[in-house]
Write a structure and sequence with these properties.
Blueprint lengths: L1 H42 L29 H4 L3 H18 L2 H17 L14 H31 L5 H25 L2 H6 L5 H22 L6 H22 L1 H17 L7 H22 L3 H20 L5 H17 L21 H6 L4 H20 L7 H18 L4 H20 L35 H25 L1 H26 L6 H22 L11 H21 L3 H16 L8 H19 L17 H19 L6 H27 L11 H24 L3 H25 L2 H4 L11 H20 L5 H28 L11 H24 L3 H25 L3 H28 L13
Helix pairs in contact: 1-6, 3-4, 5-6, 5-8, 6-8, 8-9, 8-10, 9-10, 9-11, 10-11, 10-12, 11-12, 11-13, 12-13, 12-15, 13-15, 13-16, 15-16, 15-17, 16-17, 16-18, 17-19, 18-19, 18-20, 19-20, 19-21, 20-21, 21-22, 21-23, 22-23, 22-24, 23-25, 24-25, 25-26, 25-27, 26-27, 26-29, 27-30, 29-30, 30-31, ...
Length: 948
């Protein structure tokens, strides 16, 4: 059976060779005929029409050739572009040569060339391949190759099952069969014309035969080692490696598919051959050599698929080894990762630049960002970065269970960063180096050492009473390499600044990306290290390093900004990112070197310094640093409203740490906004004005809360008195912002005053009328009948809203003014109503006390009187909204009299209720009639029919 298969395979190969030789002979004759026709046309001085069989030529240009010119072999096969270049060169000599006769002759030749030259709009589309071609020229080849490979495998299988010959003889015959297949493949390749290779490049018969022979040799070697034990582990490993490397080498002749087969064989070799004493150095050494061989072949042929698969294989081996080995070592993996970094930087893509990208048909140019994120050999660079990034994260996760894993993680991150800095195509290594650095640092610091292999709660300290451990992980600080993290931050910053310097002239988008990564990654590492491993009260190591970082990045921003106009020609991103990075490091230094109130004030002062620095440098980023400082201060206030801690907060009203912690940032924001009054950018000035107003409100509100709660800010029992003070403060802030807008128009003050007023109205509806209403809560009003809680909670806010509405007339939109006026009327109405209830029930007006008949009658009288009073006030100040409010109150009184008083009152009170209602309604009617009759027939404006 073995001999039959061998003979059949050889016969098929010879048949294929003869068939290909006949086809090659026919194609050669056709090429020679076409060549003769071309030479005849050149000799006759005629232009050559575009060849109909050309597939890839984007343009076809021909020019006349002098008869005395003897075309060389190189000229016969020169491209159409060369002809066009020669024609243009002739025109140039005519223009710049100074000879009129020559110029005239060149012009005549140019006109003739324009008549004869044909430039098609697009390259002719390749004809669709026929079904016969697919079956006969492609599928048959692949199926035949698979059949040959299966024949070799079945031959090995037959050597196991049959006993006619010894296993050694049968394996030798199978190996000879594989060698014969590879030899036949090489023989066919040498006798096949290149035109066949171009037409059927994905179904090359030589490559299929070579692949079948390679698979056969691989199977024979493995069976000889695993089943019969003819080969020991070292010999089997060496033979399998030789087959794999030979396959990769032959792929240079037979194509990328064969290279993929050789790569697969090399990646499977360590898994197929096992020893009692495995060596990770041997494993990753062999994988590195196989990877380098694959990349060398890919560099020569310009492949992308096979090297991408090689990257994936290396990453998979590294992850499996680190995850599964009992006593894993980091250094062998680190060696392999460094080989990957050097291979990508020196071999493939190596020194490839964007200009090496093949031109895309129909695309005139590529945008800078598209060029940056789609570099040459993008599949290789992206998979290479991922192949180094994932093992680096695995190394970070195995600290400290794997020796030197922390150093391996840092070195791989820096290798990725250096690769991204030195090569213009390495945008993905640069970005992934930043992601891996930050995620790996958080992984090392945030997870406990033994928690990676055991229960988190075993490492947690007991609770305060000593009963149970805390249910969250606690890092083992002694196992985390704090100094290594700081060194990593320093090294990454140096690489990042060098990358900005290198890329600034050649690729502005790449330089912008590096200018962001250079400060962001070291800041993240330093911040994670400080907040997890440092002394939050005072840490000179982290603090001083942060100061150095801040000064270095500010100096870098100054250095890179020199030579540019201070007004800024467009957006210069490195100036923004480096200056912001330096400012962020200085803020971090304040957190490390100071504490409490000093830190808060220092951040605000640092932002103000950045604003006043605009007098020296007109950098657009500087004012925005004050906004960033305000955001950090607001974050600190949200984290700790007392600024200095509840235990350290003074109980003295007003003059305490809150006044400085809230008030000084508000003052600095106001001064910064004033300093920027002539700054060309209005948005930042408006933003600082808004932030100053917000901090001023916060200052007033926090001081009121502190004073009304006996110096304690965490009181959980809100009161109407405290809320009333807040309401009065917000109303006053709205009036102040309106005044500032009238003096110095600003959209922040204009819209901010209305937003503040609207929010205060919502607060009144939710708190004064519902949440903190003493009728619902039962809160005591106080012993004094008039100077009580109702005065502060309802009457004063109502008067304040009325004054704000009057001040906003003709200055703000009418709906906003009406809303303020109605809010004031509603508060006054509530004050009157609740004051009546106080008169009958005392300082406790809770709802559970019910209603008295005289009390019910008093409501009707008071509401009617209030309606009349509002009517008079509305007429006096010419406010239609107040007059409409008075009408609403009278309507409420009417409804109450007819629905409530009629059923609840008895005797004289019921009669007096209706008599009083009728008298008031008649009086109101007479009032309106008198006003209308007094104004009718005159040239004056009818005030009752216009809005105020």
């Amino acid at each position: 059976m073995l001999e039959i298969l061998s003979l059949v395979a050889i016969g098929l190969a010879l048949y294929t060779l003869n068939a290909s030789r006949g086809s090659a002979q026919k194609l050669g004759e056709e090429v020679m005929r076409l060549k003769a026709e071309v030479e005849a046309l050149k000799a006759g001085g005629l232009s050559t029409p575009p060849a109909p069989v050309a597939e890839a030529a984007p343009e076809t240009v021909s020019s006349a050739v002098p008869e005395d010119a003897e075309p060389s072999e190189q000229e016969e096969f020169s491209s159409p572009w060369a002809a066009a270049t020669a024609s243009e060169a002739g025109k140039g000599r005519a223009i710049f040569g100074g000879a009129p006769a020559v110029a005239a002759q060149a012009a005549a030749e140019g006109e003739k060339a324009e008549k004869t030259v044909t430039v098609p709009a697009a390259a002719p589309a390749r004809p669709k391949e026929s079904f016969e071609s697919r079956i006969g020229a492609r599928w048959a080849v692949w199926v035949g190759g698979i059949a040959l490979a299966l024949g070799g495998i079945f031959m090995v299988k037959y050597s196991i099952e049959a006993g006619l010959l010894s296993p050694a003889v049968r394996l030798s015959l199978a190996a000879a069969f594989g060698l014969v297949l590879m030899a036949v493949g090489e023989f066919v390749r040498r006798r096949t014309q290149p035109l066949i290779a171009n037409a059927f490049q994905n179904a090359m018969i030589p490559g299929v035969l070579t692949a079948a022979g390679s698979i056969t040799l691989f199977a024979v070697t493995y069976v000889a080692h695993a089943f019969y034990g003819y080969l020991g582990a070292p010999a089997a490993f060496a033979l399998l490696a030789i087959v794999a490397f030979a396959t990769i080498g032959l792929s240079l002749l037979h194509g990328q598919a064969l290279a993929g087969l050789g790569l697969l064989a090399s990646m499977l070799t360590p898994a197929l051959v096992s020893t009692s004493d495995p060596s990770p150095w041997s494993l990753f050494g062999f994988l590195s050599v196989a990877w380098l061989a694959t990349f060398a072949a890919s560099r020569i042929r310009g492949w992308q698929v096979v090297p991408a698969l090689a990257n994936a294989g290396m990453a998979l081996w590294a992850l499996l080894y680190l995850a599964g080995a009992d006593n894993a070592e980091a250094m062998p993996v680190l060696l392999a990762m460094l080989v990957l970094a050097l291979g990508h930087g020196l071999i493939w893509p190596g020194g490839l630049v964007a200009e090496d990208r093949p031109p895309e048909p129909g695309v005139a140019s590529i945008a800078p960002l598209d060029r940056l994120f789609t570099p040459p050999a993008v599949a290789v660079s992206l998979t290479g970065a991922l192949a180094m990034g994932f093992p680096a994260l695995m190394l970070a996760s195995t600290v400290p269970t794997v020796a030197s894993a922390d150093h391996g993680f840092a070195i791989v991150v820096l290798a990725l960063a250096v690769l991204g800095a030195l090569r213009g195509w390495a945008v993905y290594p640069a970005i992934l180096s930043a992601i891996v650095a930050v995620v790996g640092t958080v992984r090392m610091v945030g997870l406990p050492a033994a928690g990676l292999i055991g229960d988190f709660t075993n490492l947690a300290p007991p609770t305060l009473d000593g009963s149970e451990p805390l249910p969250f992980p606690v890092p083992v600080l002694g196992s985390v390499p704090a100094n290594l993290l700081l060194l990593l931050a320093v090294a990454y910053a140096a690489v990042g600044l060098a990358a900005v310097r290198l890329r600034l002239a050649g690729s502005a988008p790449f330089a912008a990306i590096w200018s962001l990564l250079a400060p962001a990654v070291p800041f993240a590492i330093l911040a994670v290290s400080f907040f997890n491993l440092g002394n939050l009260s005072f840490d000179p190591k982290h603090g001083l390093l942060a100061v150095v970082f801040g000064l270095v990045f500010l100096a870098a921003a100054e250095g890179f900004s020199r030579g540019r106009s201070e007004g800024g020609e467009g957006l210069f991103i490195p100036q923004w990112t480096l200056a912001a990075g330096g400012f962020a490091f200085l803020v971090l230094a304040l957190h490390a070197l100071t504490d409490g109130l000093v830190t808060t004030l220092g951040i605000a002062l640092l932002g103000a310094v950045a604003v006043y620095a605009t007098r020296l440098r007109r950098w657009p980023v500087l004012p925005w640093l004050m906004a960033a400082a305000a955001a950090v201060v607001a974050g600190r206030i949200g984290w700790e409203p007392t600024i200095v801690g509840a235990a350290n907060l003074s109980k003295t009203p007003v003059f305490n740490q809150l006044l400085a912690g809230y008030g000084i940032p508000a003052a600095l924001l106001a001064l910064s906004a004033f300093e920027l009054r002539r700054w060309p950018g209005e948005r930042i000035r408006n933003l600082l004005q808004a932030l100053a107003s917000l901090f001023l409100l916060l200052t007033a509100a926090i001081l009121v809360r502190h004073g009304m709660n006996g110096g304690v800010l965490d009181s959980s029992t809100p009161t109407l008195g405290e809320q009333s003070v807040y309401t009065l403060l917000v109303i006053g802030a709205s009036a102040i912002m309106m005044s500032l807008d009238l003096k110095s128009p600003s959209p922040v003050f204009r819209y901010g005053s209305m937003v503040v007023g609207g929010l205060s109205v919502l607060s009144v509806l939710s708190a004064h009328f519902i949440g903190l209403n003493p009728y619902l809560t039962g809160e005591l009003l106080g012993k004094w009948p008039f100077f009580d809680l109702l005065l502060v909670g309802y009457l004063l806010p109502g008067i304040a809203y009325g004054g704000l509405a009057w001040y906003a007339r003709d200055r703000r939109p009418l709906p906003y003014v009406v809303m303020l006026a109605l809010s004031g009327v509603a508060l006054v109405f509530a004050w009157v109503t609740l004051s009546v209830r106080r008169y009958w029930h005392g300082e406790s007006i809770a709802e559970w006390k019910g209603f008295l008949q005289p009390e019910t009658y008093t409501y009707s009288v008071v509401w009617l009187l209030l309606g009349v009073l509002l009517l008079a006030v509305g007429s006096k100040v010419d406010s239609r909204s107040i007059r409409l409010a008075s009408a609403g109150l009278v309507l409420i009184a009417v409804v109450k009299v007819f629905l409530i008083d009629m059923s609840n009152l008895e005797g004289i009170l019921r009669a007096l209720s209706f008599i009083g209602l009728g008298a008031v309604l008649i009086g109101i009617g007479l009032f309106y009639q008198k006003i209308l009759s007094g104004k009718s027939g005159t040239g004056e404006k009818a005030e009752l029919n216009v809005s105020s």
